[in-house]
Amino acid sequence: MISCKSNTNSMQLFLSVDFCVILRHVSTMRLSVFLLIVVCSVTYTDWIRAADRIWLEPARPTVGQGDWYPRSIESFTGSVVAFDAEQFRVIRAGQNTETVTSAARVLWVEPEQISNLEAGLIDLFKEGKYAQSLSGLPAALKSRPPVWRQQWLTMLSANSAWLSGRAPVALELVGQLDRRPLPAMVLAWLPIAWENGAQPAAVVRAASERAQDPSAVVRLVAASWLLSSADRNQGLQIINELVKDSGTSRDISQLARILSWRVTPPPQVAALQATWEKQIAALPMAIQTGPSHLLMNKLRASGQAEEAKRLQLSLELTPVYGLKKVLSKSLNQ
Description:
CATH architecture of one domain: Alpha Horseshoe
CATH topology of one domain: Serine Threonine Protein Phosphatase 5, Tetratricopeptide repeat
Radius of gyration: 19 Å
Structural class: alpha+beta
Largest sheet: 5 strands, antiparallel
Shape: globular
Helix content: 40-55%
């Protein structure tokens, strides 16, 4: 059954999550101005309208424009025509022709209507009832949401599987998704362990079993879990292979490189910070959350409390979407 109202529950998840949108060398004043622009651009009255609600990463400035003045996230209503790893096609409200933009700019799409089954799955995830949320995936997919939405629901369920102790299922879902290229908005939800800390034995065992998987995305997730185990060297080997393999997609290669920062000794962090920030800023904004969280923790562990606080502010106050629970719960499964 299709809900006749906008997906309020999914939007609450969207608004509840950490997401870093600015990692260049900016002053506190510029960061605050940027956050104010973004926060004010996403209001309740905006997203309750009966139309798909879309959020796009700000367009990259031209050489002549420079990047001193922060650019706000672009949000608007319209009807999504198609959305894959390359292109995002939409008819904006009040227009009759399609607008085509790079799929990498899409931060989030809030559908006009979703099924009650989808809403239930999302509610259970928000409540931390991961096993129950996971069990709702087959029924939610049977309601035939658009392909991009099916991909996101499946990736959300991969996180539910990981967080409920069913790591093999999580990797299987990720592997199934990797059969076709994924939009950055979906890759953002990969069940990667961005923080240091022990993973349960079952998770480590599942990662070891898929360490040679043909899917680069599965290997990336497995490597992140292995870094939190006695098999850390195996995880690092996988990461190095992903970085060096010319067949690995650019986004996955970049995420693998960033994941390797987890093993950087604290005394080396200060010298690497500027380079790391540039690498994160070069990613599509949609997939900057996990890397930004990793950087924040490394700064804090290396005694750079003020720098970590600056980054934490951007993570806490920028309203994009729902990795907050995944990042905060991943070490407390």
